[in-house]
Design goal:
Elements (H helix, E strand, L loop, with lengths): L24 E3 L10 H10 L10 H11 L6 E4 L1 H12 L5 E5 L4 H8 L4 E5 L19 E5 L11 H5 L7 E5 L21 E6 L1 H4 L7 E4 L2 H10 L7 H9 L3 H27 L3 E2 L7 E5 L3 H10 L2 E5 L10 E5 L3 H22 L1
Parallel strand pairs: 1-11, 3-4, 3-5, 5-6, 6-7
Antiparallel strand pairs: 2-8, 7-8, 9-10, 10-12, 11-12
Helix pairs in contact: 1-8, 2-8, 3-4, 3-7, 9-11, 10-11
């Protein structure tokens, strides 16, 4: 297996959960709910009496297909999006793989672990990390891109994503955070496009990271190829129950309300950061923002001392130690963070002057 610390020095297995603990206020992990909603907890609790039986994902597959207007043959439930990355890396045999960066590092880590060389396609900070389809080499036959992208929070136009499509190419669009964008604009989940694989996660909106519930949408031939590589019963019964429950109209309506609340909370966070003179990257649309500030590493440690955990940016290819990712939280938490950040900036500036 390839070393998770790649030749560029980026720790591809570093995630926000490494930043938290010790009573810190968590702004490093992008799971917004501390616990699942009561209705989802109740459904999960009721399924526990059936755990003696092997999992059956047929109801989940049908529910997801109906939710996106797709056929069940287009759907593959997975143990979170992370399993989908591993399936893609192990089941496909690309000659030239490209990963658009900066973005979530698990796709590249899975590709490297499977022995695939990876070409990085860097997006420009000066250009707001906006996708340029022309920057992806023509010879790339497997391309990964996030939408909205973690950690930049940029939402790429669906038209730009469609421009990546080529005969003989698989384009993987990670939409793990798109249900946190009101109305899910620019999503490709509802279209059966040749060569396009869309990944989804239930973790972020519903507070079930520990349950490992996600799925992918693809043409039947591609979905079947990935299904053949999937270990038997990899999706647990509770995860399958969550997929059904979170695909119902009432859940989708609730997710829309949560997305609108996150949008309001993000606007407050961005305004506060800019008042402090902090550079906020691009036009954030996800439930997190990417910021650049001098001596960000020292500021992050000062925030930890003040009780706040934020995500370091220098483990993402294309970023360096001047970047931090901050999760969107409720207004009270945001105000506390901004006060702590202002103090941290003063302390670091005084220490280094």
């Amino acid at each position: 297996m390839a070393d998770p610390v790649d030749q560029g020095g980026y720790d591809l297995r570093h995630h926000g959960d490494r930043e938290v603990g010790g009573g810190l206020v968590d702004l490093a992990v992008n799971v917004r709910m501390a616990t699942p909603p009561e209705w989802l907890r109740d459904e999960l609790a009721r399924c526990l009496t059936g755990l003696a039986a092997y999992p059956d994902v047929r109801a989940a597959t049908e529910a997801i297909a109906a939710r996106h207007g797709r056929e069940p043959a287009d759907v593959l439930p997975t143990a979170g999006a992370a399993e989908a990355f591993t399936l893609l890396a192990n089941a496909l045999r690309p000659r030239n793989t490209a990963v658009v960066h900066p973005q979530f590092t698990e796709p590249e880590a899975a590709l490297r672990a499977a022995g695939h060389p990876v070409l990085r396609v860097p997006l420009s900070a000066a250009g707001g990390f906006v996708l340029d389809p022309g920057a992806v080499p023509e010879h790339a036959d497997l391309v990964f891109v996030g939408n909205p992208t973690n950690p930049t929070s940029v939402l790429h136009p669906a038209a730009a994503l469609r421009r990546l499509c080529r005969p003989g190419r698989i384009v993987v669009v990670d939409e793990a955070f798109i249900d946190a964008v009101p109305g899910e604009p620019e999503s490709l989940a509802g279209e059966r496009l040749p060569g396009v694989v869309v990944l989804r996660s239930l973790t972020k909106t519903w507070g079930i990271a520990g349950l490992r519930a996600g799925y992918l949408l693809a043409e039947p031939a591609v979905a079947e190829r990935l299904r053949a590589a999937q270990p038997p019963w990899s999706v647990s019964t509770p995860a399958a129950v969550a997929m059904v429950a979170c695909s119902r109209p009432a859940a989708l309506a609730e997710a829309g309300e949560l997305a609108r609340a996150a949008e309001r909370d993000r606007a407050e966070l961005v305004a506060g950061l800019r008042e402090l003179g902090v550079h906020v990257a691009g036009a954030p649309r996800g439930p997190f923002v990417l910021v650049r500030l001098p001596r960000a590493g020292q500021v992050r440690l000062a925030l930890r001392a003040a009780g706040y955990a934020v995500r370091r940016g220098d483990t993402f290819p294309g970023l360096d130690e001047d970047w931090l990712r901050i999760a969107v939280r409720d207004p009270a938490t945001t105000r506390g963070l901004l006060d702590a950040l202002a103090t941290a900036q003063r302390l670091v500036s005084a220490h280094t002057s």
